[in-house]
Design a protein that fits this description.
Blueprint lengths: L1 E4 L2 E4 L2 H34 L3 H6 L21 E9 L6 E10 L4 E7 L4 E2 L2 E2 H21 L5 E6 H11 L2 E5 L3 E5 L6 E5 L2 E5 L1 H14 L3 H15 L2 H5 L1 H11 L1 E2 L3 H6 L1 H9 L5 E4 L12 H11 L2
Parallel strand pairs: 3-8, 5-14
Antiparallel strand pairs: 1-2, 3-4, 4-5, 6-7, 8-13, 9-12, 10-11
Helix pairs in contact: 4-8, 5-6
Length: about 300
């Protein structure tokens, strides 16, 4: 293309002209986009508080499977369990706990007992040493006057292994605990800070042993158990319940059969899927100076656990 000026000709290459025109168009588009964005953001700021409000009308949701209570099986009745842990030689009881699954009121009821509890001048530890868990189950049923349906006894190593498959729990400790105890091959150490923290199955075992034998605070021991029950009976563990039950049978001495497990599946499903909605009750054991439960304490335990 030619542009005439005076007597000379000025030549502007055709290719450069085309490039300049494209740059101009791009600049105009960029200016338009910037102006549009500013206007859009101003309008958005007036109408919505944040991006979540714009895209979800104030709600951002993720896909979650929720099972309503109406979809869960109907359950009823009460089942009492006796649970205890010993040293690996099965010669010393670390702790012993009564647990009721109340399917009528949808509740757990827990009562921790001292291993030194005297019944007819014989301690729980001595009864166990002479006859094992089955004998102790029978004796406690007679003593309290309500049926203990099932018992399970773990040695320490087996409980820690089984508990590790169930998972950790969140425990809110009332205090800092730094303690070493036990003797011989049955020594244990516990280091827990005050406040909320994760504890594994070994720490859970040591914590229960500490409150049962050292502090003799059966109220706090109950709370630890109730916290564990509420958290460990959950949807994931229910889905894996068959393999967990096989490990339970392998790891403990008990009187629970495969048929008992199958019959309890509906109740297990309910307690696992409604775990955070399950009511919990703590029955604190109280003793006289001779390690005998007071009459009032026996009455309270019987009142909670009777059917």
């Amino acid at each position: 293309m030619k542009i005439f000026k005076n007597r000379g000709d000025i030549y502007i290459p055709k290719g450069n002209y085309k490039k300049s025109r494209e740059e101009t168009i791009l600049k105009l588009l960029l200016v338009f986009i910037i102006i549009f964005t500013i206007v859009f953001l101003v309008l958005l700021g007036h109408k919505y508080k944040n991006a979540a409000s714009f895209f979800g009308d104030g709600e951002v949701t993720t896909t979650q499977i929720v099972i309503n209570e109406e979809e869960l099986p109907k359950i009823s009745g009460k089942t009492n369990f006796m649970f205890l842990e010993t040293d690996d030689e099965k010669s010393v009881i670390h702790y012993i706990i009564l647990i009721q699954a109340d399917k009528d009121s949808k509740a757990y009821k827990v009562c921790s007992l001292s291993p030194q509890t005297k019944i007819d001048n014989e301690s729980i530890s001595e009864i166990y040493e002479n006859g094992g868990g089955a004998s102790l189950q029978t004796k406690l049923t007679e003593y309290f006057g309500f049926e203990i349906n099932y018992f399970a006894e773990f040695d320490n190593s087996s409980f820690v292994e089984f508990g590790s498959k169930m998972g950790d729990i969140i425990y809110n400790s009332y205090e800092d605990i730094k303690f070493s105890g036990g003797s011989g091959d049955d020594k244990y150490t516990i280091r827990i800070s005050e406040g909320e923290q994760n504890i594994n199955s070994k720490e859970l075992s040591n914590l229960l042993r500490y409150y049962s034998n050292e502090k003799k605070d059966y109220g706090i021991e109950n709370e630890v158990i109730l916290s564990a029950l509420t958290q460990l009976f959950n949807e994931d563990n229910f889905e894996d319940s068959e393999s967990l039950f096989r490990l339970f049978i392998k790891s403990s001495t008990n009187n629970i059969t495969v048929r008992d497990f199958e019959n309890a599946k509906n109740a297990l499903m309910y307690f696992c899927y409604k775990n955070e909605d399950i009511t919990v009750y703590s029955v604190q054991s109280k003793y006289d100076k001779k390690n005998v439960l007071t009459q009032q304490s026996v009455k309270e335990i019987k009142g909670y656990f009777s059917k």
